[in-house]
Every structure is written in C-alpha cells, then in structure tokens.
Amino acid sequence: MSLTPEQVKKIGHLARLNLSENDMALYTPQLSRILDFIAQMNQIDTSQVEPLAHPLDISQRLRTDEVTEPNLRDKYQSIAPQVEAGLYLVPKVIEEA
Predict the structure, then answer these.
(1) What's the angle, vertex CA 51, arms to CA 65 and CA 61, rounded to 5?
(2) Beta strands in the chain (DSSP E)
(3) Using the 8-state DSSP alphabet, how is residue 11 labeled?
(4) The dihedral of CA 70, 74, 80, 86: what is its sign?
(5) Would residue 33 be called left, alpha or beta, if left means φ above 0 and alpha means ψ between -120 and 50 degrees?
(6) What are residue 83's DSSP bridge partners?
(7) Which among 7, 60, 75, 88 has the fewest CB atoms less than 10 Å away?
(8) How far apart (Å, rounded) are the C-alpha atoms in residues 17 and 57?
C-alpha cells in the first residue's frame, strides 16, 4: 500500500504533528512500508493459533496477602468535619436542572 504525501499530511494532522515538507518526504515511504507489513501479517492464517495472555508459560510471582499497615481510620476520621458510620460526609456538589 503506497501512501501519498497528502495522506501522510492528513495522518500527521490527525496525530497533531506539524510535519514539514522534508518530514513528509521521509515519512511517506516509511509509513507505506509499515502498512505493507501489516497487510502481509493480515494474510497469515491464525485460525489454529490459541490466544495467549502471555507468550511464555509462566506464572506471576505474587506477594503474600497480609496486612502491613495499622488501621488508622478512627484517627483520621476524628479530625474530619462530618463522619457517619465510618464514612466521610461531604456536601452535595451536583445541582439538578
């Protein structure tokens, strides 16, 4: 797929890039090669390939699920303007039309 300089200019505008004429001459063949490569990859039959979450068959190392900080909720809520049932009360900020 061969892109025209006008198409590259439009792509640059959509990407909010300020491309000069020298940039256009440089990027037009590069973007065309990228799109050609994508078209080539789209022709590959992947119907027998199972989707993977990760290319390697490894499991993620997880840390132990344990409490590492003390519960200081009562201390923090003691200085709050309004608290009810362990929740901070805030003024309503959304007005109905």
Answers:
(1) 20
(2) 83-84, 87-88
(3) H
(4) positive
(5) alpha
(6) 88
(7) 60
(8) 40
Tell me, yes or no, if the pTM score tops 0.85.
Answer: no
- Helical axes 5-14 vs 21-42, angle rounded to 10°: 90
Helices (H) and strands (E) in the chain, counts: 3, 2
- Rounded (10°) CA dihedral 64, 69, 72, 73: -30
Q: What is the mean pLDDT of residues 11-30?
A: 92
- Torsion sign across C-alpha atoms 14, 1, 25, 31: positive
| pLDDT over 70 percentage in the chain | 99
The sign one gets for the Cα dihedral 23, 29, 32, 33 is: negative
User: What does pLDDT average to over the chain?
Assistant: 90
How far is Cα 23 from Cα 13, in angstroms, rounded to an integer?
Answer: 13
How large is the average pLDDT for residues 73-93? 93
Q: Which residues contact 39 (CB under 8 A, 6 or more apart)?
A: 1
